[in-house]
Write a structure and sequence with these properties.
Blueprint lengths: L1 E5 L3 H12 L3 E6 L15 E2 L12 H8 L7 E3 L5 H12 L3 H29 L6 E8 L2 H6 L1 H9 L5 E4 H7 L11 E10 L2 H14 L3 E4 L5 E5 L2 E7 L2 E4 L2 E4 L5 H5 L9 E11 L10 E4 L4 E6 L2 E10 L8 H14 L10 E9 L6 E4 L5 E5 L5 H16 L21
Helix pairs in contact: 1-8, 1-11, 4-11
This protein binds flavin-adenine dinucleotide.
The site of flavin-adenine dinucleotide has 43 residues, from α1, β2, β13, β17 and α11.
């Protein structure tokens, strides 16, 4: 069986690995010269399955409106006139109801916990090193933030996810580098969550996939999917047709450009996020684990001797342009907690587009077009859901039964779509 994977982000690389491990002849194609060079490149690196949650949540529309005129807002709404965005927003609003949020969250968590198990298995199998660290601490600046963490904590406990609510002193003992000058009401510690550098992992797994026979054709743009006799028979690159028994689209936020012309219309919108990366000073006490400043929804993650600071959800146009305001917020947050840990003026900046579906869970598996499969729409938690999604795809493509229930994770939830 020959399979083409379109896209060498974290989703495409893990999918190719699993197929190659099953003995499938797999070729990955990507327009970039390396793997994980787009959204998978600059993410916060957090793998927190218990905390995986849809952005369509009760109270979110009100929050978005309240952020409209605030500096340092974690959510930025600068709508373009594209009808697709407005349709996405209407669908997103419909998913903000409490019962929809709960259903979507549980679907995402089912996949995320499975993904973490698969990640650990791959790490043990290949001895992968990707600047990983253990644990996740949410920093709650005010009593209001502390009170708001209540429902999420209850859900974590209901699902048996170990977590501890810490007072400020206990947070500072766990993270001695935190500045004493920045007010802190407490924190939620998730000792079993973790973090790691996504593109470093992708590059390492690519080598293992190649050792199993997977081929990577990089620096090539897929112009279209090729349909013949009612099925997808391959992809067109320039004038050439590359044939396969199955094509898996893992093209992140740009998947729609390939899927629209073959009649698979998906409500994916690129929700932008920003990151800064900076080297720690040699004597600095940086964080020992990934931190999340809840007030600014900004993550601070240690990658070896560097810090990655990432955040902001910007619902606007498609242009990946660095904007000053969100970058200032990242540096403000990092500087609040670790003022002397780095030369902040030397930070390297990045912007990426989360491939976001309105409800939250990704889309895995077959379409109505024989030969065409999807592994996309992982939104803000694609790194946390990659290894499990990949295994599910490999099982479906090779006719095996996936190890998790796929209810709510396939195209069936958009019944009106092909
Ligand atoms: C600021 C920020 C912070 C984040 N933090 C986290 C986090 O802490 N934890 C977490 O789990 N997730 C996080 N995410 C989300 C995560 O990064 C994404 O969900 C994930 O990277 C999506 O992976 P992907 O492979 O689907 O997309 P991508 O990485 O974008 O890969 C898609 C690939 O398809 C290729 N492609 C597209 N179209 C074509 C074409 N026509 N021809 C050839 N190639 C094509 C692109 O070149 C690209 O390489 C964050 C995202 C952002 C922006």
């Amino acid at each position: 069986m020959r399979v083409i994977v379109v896209g060498a982000g974290i989703i495409g690389v893990t999918t190719a690995y699993e197929l190659a491990a099953d003995g499938v002849s797999v070729a990955v194609v990507d327009r970039r010269t390396g793997v994980a060079q787009e959204t998978s490149f600059g993410n916060a690196g957090v793998i927190a399955p218990g905390y995986v949650t849809p952005w369509a949540a009760p109270g979110m529309p009100g929050k978005v409106l309240s952020y409209l005129f605030k500096p340092n807002a974690p959510v930025v709404f600068r709508p373009s006139l594209e009808p697709r965005l407005w349709r996405w927003l209407v669908a997103w609003l419909g998913e903000c109801r409490a019962e929809r949020w709960r259903t979507n969250k549980l679907r995402m968590q089912r996949l995320a916990f499975y993904s973490r198990d698969r990640l650990h298995l791959l790490r043990a199998r290949h001895g992968l090193q990707y600047e990983q660290s253990q644990g996740y601490l949410q920093l709650l600046r005010s009593d209001k933030d502390l009170a708001m963490v209540g429902p999420a904590r209850a859900l974590l406990e209901e699902n048996g996810v170990p977590c501890q609510l810490l007072d400020a002193q206990a947070c500072r003992t766990l993270e001695p580098g935190l500045s004493p000058l920045t007010p802190l009401a407490g924190g939620l510690h998730l000792p079993e969550d973790e973090s790691g550098n996504c593109p470093v992992f992708a590059a390492a797994l690519r080598r293992d996939a190649e050792a199993l026979g997977a081929r990577f054709r990089l620096d090539v743009l897929v112009h279209s999917l090729v349909v013949e006799g009612g099925r997808v028979i391959g992809v067109r690159i320039g004038r050439d047709l590359y044939k396969a028994d199955a094509v898996i689209v893992c093209a992140g936020a740009d998947s729609v450009a390939l899927l629209d012309p073959v009649g698979v219309k998906l409500p994916i919108w690129p929700v932008k996020g920003y990151a800064a990366t900076v080297t720690l000073k040699p004597d600095a006490i940086g964080p020992g684990r990934a931190l999340m400043d809840e007030a600014y929804k900004t993550a601070i993650t240690p990658f070896g001797n560097r810090l990655r600071i990432a955040g902001t959800a910007e619902i606007s146009d498609r242009a990946l342009t660095l904007r000053e305001a969100p970058l200032r917020t990242l540096i403000k947050v990092a500087g609040d907690w670790f003022p002397a840990a780095a030369r902040w003026s030397e930070a390297q900046y990045w912007v990426g587009a989360r491939p976001m579906l309105p409800d939250g869970p990704p889309l895995l598996g077959a379409t109505a077009l024989p030969g065409l499969f999807l592994n996309l729409g992982h939104g803000s938690t694609g790194w946390a859901m990659a290894c499990g999604s990949a295994r599910v795809l490999a099982d479906l493509v090779t006719g095996k039964t996936p190890q998790i229930d796929l209810d709510g994770l396939t195209l069936q939830r958009y019944r009106r779509l092909p």
